[in-house]
Amino acid sequence: PQTIFLRDYEAPHHWVRDVALTFRLAPRTTRVISRITFVPNELNRGDLVLNGEELQLIAATVDGAIVNMEVDDTHLRIASADLPQKPFVFEAEVEISPETNTALEGLYMSNGMYCTQCEAEGFRKITYYPDRPDVMGVFTVRVESDLPVLLSNGNPVERGDGFAVWHDPWPKPAYLFALVAGELVNHPGRFTTASGRDVELNIWVRPGDEDKCAFGMEALRKSMKWDEDTYGREYDLDIFNIVAVDDFNMGAMENKGLNIFNSSCVLASKETSTDANFERIEGIIAHEYFHNWTGNRITCRDWFQLCLKEGLTVYRDQMFSGDMRSHAVKRIEEVLALRARQFREDNGPLAHPVRPESFVEINNFYTATVYEKGAEIIGMLRRLIGDEAYRKGCDLYFERHDGEAVTIEDWLKAFEDATGRDLSQFARWYSQAGTPRLKVSESFAEGRLTLTFAQSTPPTPGQPDKAPQVLPIAVGLIGPNGDEVVETRVLEMTEATQSFTFDGLGARPVASILRDFSAPVILEREMDAATRAFLLAHDTDPFQKWEMGRMLAKDTLVALILEDTPPARDYLDAIRAVLTDDSLDPAFRALVLGLPGEDDLAQTLFDAGVTPDPQKIHDARETLRGSLARHLSDALPTVFRQMETGAFVPDADGSGKRALRLSVLSLLTLLDAGKEAKALFSKADNMTEQAGALAALLAAGLGEEELAAFGQMWRHDRLVMDKWFALQVALAAPARAADVARDLSHHPDFTMKNPNRFRAVFGALPGNHAGFHHAGGAAYALLADQIIALDALNPQTAARMTGAFETWRRYDADRQAMIRAALERIRAKTGLSRDVTEMVTRILG
Ligand code: B3K
Ligand code: ZN
C-alpha cells in the first residue's frame, strides 16, 4: 500500500462549484447520477482527477460529450488536453450496491434503512468525485425511493411521490455529504437562534424508539444555546436532523444539517441507559453539533489537519459538559481517559504526532492522540493566553476563515495576530509525538521556595530527539496548617530545565503542582505518603486532591505486587476520610474510591523496570479491594443508604450519588455475599443501578442467576444486550475470559456485522487485562482469529481492534512471542485490508 505524506500536499487541479446528485435507491442496484460543475484551478492546472472505488460506471460526459478517460479501481482521470480550460460540467451515472456494503463506509443499509458514512474517504464509494476536504461544493440532492422518509443535507426544497429534493447552500467537502432513507419516525423540537431564525429539529429513529429521544433533543437545544453564548456561533440552516442507526463504525458523524448517530450514542431512557450513557450522549450530541462551526463552516485542507477540527471540537464539548455538570469531575474523567488511551498510545509503537506526517489509511488516525491530546493543546493555549484572548483568537479565526479549508498554521496565526504572541515553539505540540516527562525538585530557604523543572520526551517511532515544549504548569501553595498561601499561578516553562521562585513565605509550604492537569505530561516528583495524604486532605484543587489519592492507591498496589506489603493504615484512613466527608461531592468521592486499572498498573511497573505479571496485578487489586471493604465495613452501609436517590434524574447530582452508591456496593458485595447487590438488582427501576448491581456481583464471582435474568429481561433490546455481552467478558475470571468470549461469539445474538455487538465482546476482552494476557495466550489467538474474520467484512472496525496489542513489549518473552505470532498470523492473511495491514505493521515495529 502507498504512503501519503503531508509534505506532498498539492492543491487540486479543479475546484467544484456545484453538484447535483440523483439517487435511485435499490438495495443492490442503486443508481447515482451526478452533474458537477468544475472550475480549473488557475494556480495549478492539470488533469481532472476523480476518486472512485467499487463503482460500476455506466456513462460519463464532459459538457454533454463523450471524452477520453482513464478508469481504474481507484480513479477516473481525464487529461488536461481533453478538457475545456474554463468551467465545465461533468456528468456521470454509476451503479452501487448498498446492501452488500458491510464495511459501513459510503452508502450502506442497516435494518432496511439506507444511510451513509463518508468521512474520511467514503464518498468515493458513492460516485466519481475529487474526494478531498479542500474541494468544497454546493450540493443539491434528489433522493428517489418509496421509503417514507428521505433525507439529505441542507434545507428541504421539494417533496413529491417517491422523491425528495434537498439543497445545502453552504459549500462543503464531500466527506460531509449524507443521505438517509427509511421507515423512520421523528421526535420533533424547535430552537430559535439569537438572531431569530426558527429552526426545526428532529431526531429520527426506528419505530419503537421514539420514547428514547427526549434527552438527546434537550442536549441538542442546550448545545445550540451554549455555542451562541460561549463562542457567538449560531446555527445556519432551517432544519437540523439527527438520525439513529444501529450499524455504525464509530459514535456519530457531523454531516451538514444531518448528523448520523450510532443508536448507542443518542437513544436514552432511564430503563435502558446508564448515567454514563446519558453523559456520553449529551457530550456526543454537543460534539457533532459544535462541528457545524469547527469542522464544517471551517474545514481541514487535508486529512493531516484532522486535529484542527477534532481537537478543537473535543475541547469545546468538554467545556460544554463541564458547564452542564461539574468541571472538577469532568476534568478528572478526562484525565483518566487521556492516560488510559492517549498516554498508552504515546508510549508504544503507534505513537504519532497530533498532526501526523504520513499515513497509509487515514481511518487509522482517528486516535486518542488526534482527539484527546489535540483537545489538551487547545486547553493549554487558552491557559497560556487567558480567556479573553482565547475568545478574541477564536473570533478572528472564524472571521478570517469562514468557508475555507485550512491548516493548523492558519489556526495558530489567528492567535498570534490576536495576541501578538509568537507561537512557534508552542506549535511543537502538533509535531512532536510522545508524552513529556516533567521532573521537579524543590528547595526552600529564607522564605523562598524554588521549584526546578526538567522536561524530556522519550523517542517515538521516527522521532529520536525532541526539543523542549511550552508547558503551562499551574501551581498553588498550601501552608503547613492546611491553608492555601498562594493561589493558582500558571508558570510558563519553555526551556529544558527552568526554575521558578515564590517569595515572602513564612514557613515551608507544600506545593500543589500541575493543578487541573494543566499540561498533558507525566509528572515525576519524589513525595512521601504523608505529604500525599496532606494534599489529599487540604488541596483546594479538586484534580490534585484526587490525584494524591490516586498516587497513594498506586503506591499501595505496587508494594502489594512487588513485596506483598499489606496496605498501610494511613492510606486506608485517608480513603475513609474522603468517603465519609459529606462536604465533598459524591461524584468526586466515587472517583477517589476508584482504584487504578490493571493496564495502568502494568505500565507503571514496566516504567519502573519490572516486567508486569497480569495475574499478580489482578490479585493485588482484588486484595486491596478486600482490605478496603473490611476497613470501611462500618461506613459502607451508611453511605450506601445515604446515596439513595429518589426519582431518576440523569443530572450531575443524581449520577454522582449513584456512582458513589455503586462504588460502595461493589465493596459491600465482598462482605455480604451479594445480599445488598441482589436486592438492588431486583428492585432497581433504572439501568444504572440494575447494571451496577450486576457488575458488583460479577466482579465478586457471584451473580449467575442475575446475569441470566438480565439476559432474559432485555433479549429484545439490542443496546442493553450489548451491555449483557460486555459485562460477562469484562468481569470474567482471568482464566475463563477467553472461553467466555468464544462462547459468546457462538451465541445466536452475536453478529460480526454489527460493530456494537462485536465491540461488546471483543472490545471488552482486552479490557479484561488479566484475562486477555492469561498464560497460554488463548485470548491472543482468539482475538487474532476474530480480527481476521472481521477484516473481510469491515476493515475499519477490524483495524481498530488491533490496538489491543499495542502494549505487547511490556510483557515477558513468552507473552511477547505469542502476541508476535498472533500479529504475524494476521499480517500473513491473503487479501488483508490496507487498514489492518498498516496497524499490524506499525505495532510489530
Ligand atoms: N468526524 C467523525 C469521525 C469520522 C471517523 C471516520 N473514520 C466523528 C467525530 O469526530 O465527530
Ligand atoms: Zn469530531
TrEMBL record:
Using the record's annotation, list all stretches that form the Peptidase M1 alanyl aminopeptidase C-terminal domain.
531-844
Task: Write down the species.
Answer: Celeribacter indicus
Q: What is this protein called?
A: Aminopeptidase N
Which reaction(s) does the protein catalyse, per the Swiss-Prot or TrEMBL entry? Release of an N-terminal amino acid, Xaa-|-Yaa- from a peptide, amide or arylamide. Xaa is preferably Ala, but may be most amino acids including Pro (slow action). When a terminal hydrophobic residue is followed by a prolyl residue, the two may be released as an intact Xaa-Pro dipeptide
Q: Which UniProt keywords apply?
A: Aminopeptidase, Hydrolase, Metal-binding, Metalloprotease, Protease, Zinc
Q: Which gene encodes it?
A: pepN
Q: Which Gene3D superfamilies match?
A: 2.60.40.1840, 3.30.2010.30, Neutral Protease Domain 2, Peptidase M1, alanyl aminopeptidase, C-terminal domain, tricorn interacting facor f3 domain
Where would I find the Peptidase M1 membrane alanine aminopeptidase domain in this sequence? 215-428
Enzyme class, one word?
hydrolase
Which InterPro entries does the record associate with it?
A: Aminopeptidase_N-like_N, Aminopeptidase_N-like_N_sf, PepN_Ig-like_sf, Peptidase_M1, Peptidase_M1_dom, Peptidase_M1_pepN, Peptidase_M1_pepN_C, Peptidase_M1_pepN_C_sf
